[in-house]
Design a protein that fits this description.
Layout lengths: L3 H13 L27 H20 L4 H18 L3 H16 L4 H13 L3 H14 L4 H14 L2 H14 L3 H13 L3 H14 L3 H17 L3 H14 L4 H13 L3 H14 L3 H13 L3 H20 L5 H10 L3 H14 L3 H13 L3 H11 L7 H13 L3 H14 L7 H13 L3
Helix pairs in contact: 1-8, 2-3, 3-4, 3-5, 4-5, 5-6, 5-7, 6-7, 7-8, 7-9, 8-9, 9-10, 10-11, 11-12, 11-13, 12-13, 13-14, 14-15, 15-16, 17-18, 17-19, 18-19, 19-20, 19-21, 20-21, 21-22, 21-23, 22-23
InterPro entries: TAT_signal, TPR-like_helical_dom_sf, TPR_rpt
Protein name: Tetratricopeptide repeat protein
Organism: Umezawaea tangerina
């Protein structure tokens, strides 16, 4: 955890810096929590521009194959294309292009940054850190190298190093990628209002529709996480004005519709979203909503689709045991949830994985151990209704009823709509604990 002076400096720069210059990468390269991959920005304009960039690079390389800079550009563009399309087959293309660049010019910074971004996209965060360190050596004053490190260190649970990397980005290039990463760093430390300020600052610097949509999406997520559906919808709607085809914003609108009780509307939206971009997060949310609506067979089908998508991702070198643990927990498979959570903890011991491991241990009846990991999940101060719900259920199982009431009440006061499956469960548990015996 960063020192108090370090934390104050991060906030000060977020609050006062001006004249920002955007990095070459978009804000959507930031790795935020569940999903482990960021929401796709699937606007036709963005895709057309990226496709043109790929075609241009391919054309240059056909005539001048010994061009490490263009190979690096092509590899990085393939990483972005994988994100936009949710098609992991681009990972292999990206790796091939970036390795070609490095073979022609070893230790060239753009290719090292590209390899780090690719490793982050594949959830190989230890490798991403190593690539980022090499990129920082090659290009010490390039904010993109520090962005790779910020994402990797965040996921690896090295919060002090992550904050330092974000701070360096703010020093070098105080633009959208730096401010959005600063926002997430602040959010993880429970400083939600300051996280919102950082996103507002990012939005001021956003010019393209993809960056505007990205900032509005995460402003909406902060509002949704605090239970403010009206403000969440306002941000999602503003983002859709900039980018009407953004899938992440559509997902946000689907969540608020479900929270408002418009279940059929939300289910219809998720059906479209998952057919366009079958990310595990969207499929899991769709299945959970179907389950809560009493449509178990339809939910089982979506879980089957999710399992197939996870196989596709794994074949492309991307394994996400955190998502797999959450799915198994939702389906009541405590042993599988624990196996995946333990595997993920061995790779990236951050607060999100600590929470998943705590919940899996609770489902398996190992509540004393579960509480240890719930404590780890709470260590940074992140305000999260799901975290509080899990902690409350663990405390209730341990017979610590007064503390359980406090935790469950906190979950529902933070966001009474945090999950179509678990918010009602939290309310029932709270009512039981408060009822006279």
């Amino acid at each position: 955890m960063p020192s108090p002076s370090g934390r104050r400096r991060l906030l000060a720069i977020v609050a006062i810096v001006g004249g920002a210059v955007l990095l070459g990468t978009t804000a959507a390269t930031l790795l935020r929590p569940a999903p482990a991959a960021p929401p796709p920005a699937s606007a036709p304009v963005a895709e057309t521009a990226l496709s043109r960039a790929i075609s241009s690079a391919q054309s240059r390389l056909r005539t001048t194959p010994d061009d490490p800079a263009t190979w690096a550009q092509l590899g990085s563009a393939y990483v972005e294309q994988a994100r936009i399309t949710a098609d992991p087959s681009y990972y292999a293309k990206a790796q091939g292009a970036l390795e070609r660049s490095l073979a022609q010019r070893p230790e060239n910074g753009p290719a090292l940054i590209g390899m780090g971004s690719l490793a982050n996209a594949r959830h190989d965060f230890a490798a991403a850190r190593d690539w980022g360190l090499r990129a920082r050596t090659a290009l010490p004053d390039t904010a993109e190298a520090h962005g790779v490190l910020a994402d990797a260190y965040t996921q690896l649970g090295d919060t002090a190093a992550a904050t330092a990397a974000v701070q360096r980005m703010l020093d070098l290039e105080p633009g959208v990628p730096a401010f959005t990463r600063a926002s997430y760093d602040l959010e993880l430390h429970g400083r939600t209002d300051e996280a919102r300020q950082a996103l507002d600052r990012a939005l001021q610097d956003a010019t393209g529709p993809d960056d505007i949509a990205f900032c509005q999406y995460y402003l909406g997520e902060l509002a949704f996480g605090s239970g403010d559906l009206d403000l969440a919808d306002e941000h999602y709607d503003q983002g859709l004005l900039a980018d009407p085809n953004d899938t992440g914003l559509a997902q946000g609108k689907a969540k608020t519709a479900a929270a408002r009780g418009r279940t059929d509307e939300a289910l219809a939206a998720y059906r479209v979203i998952t057919s366009r971009v079958p990310l595990p997060q969207y499929l899991q949310e769709y299945a959970a909503l179907l389950t809560s609506a009493g449509r178990g067979d339809d939910a089982a089908h979506q879980y089957d689709v999710l399992a197939q998508q996870e196989k596709v991702l794994a074949a492309a070198g991307s394994v996400d045991d955190l998502a797999a643990s959450a799915v198994a927990a939702d389906r009541g498979d405590a042993a599988t949830a624990l196996r995946h959570a333990e595997a993920e903890w061995s790779r990236r011991p951050n607060v999100l994985v600590a929470d998943a491991l705590a919940w899996a241990l609770h489902l398996g009846g190992r509540d004393a151990e579960a509480l240890e990991y719930a404590d780890k999940a709470a260590a940074l101060g992140k305000v999260d209704a799901g975290f509080s719900f899990h902690r409350g259920m663990i405390l209730a199982a341990l017979g610590r009823s007064h503390e359980a009431v406090t935790a469950l009440d906190t979950a529902l006061r933070t966001n009474p709509h945090f999950s179509p499956l678990h918010a009602p469960q939290a309310q029932r548990a709270l009512d039981d604990l408060r009822s006279p015996r």
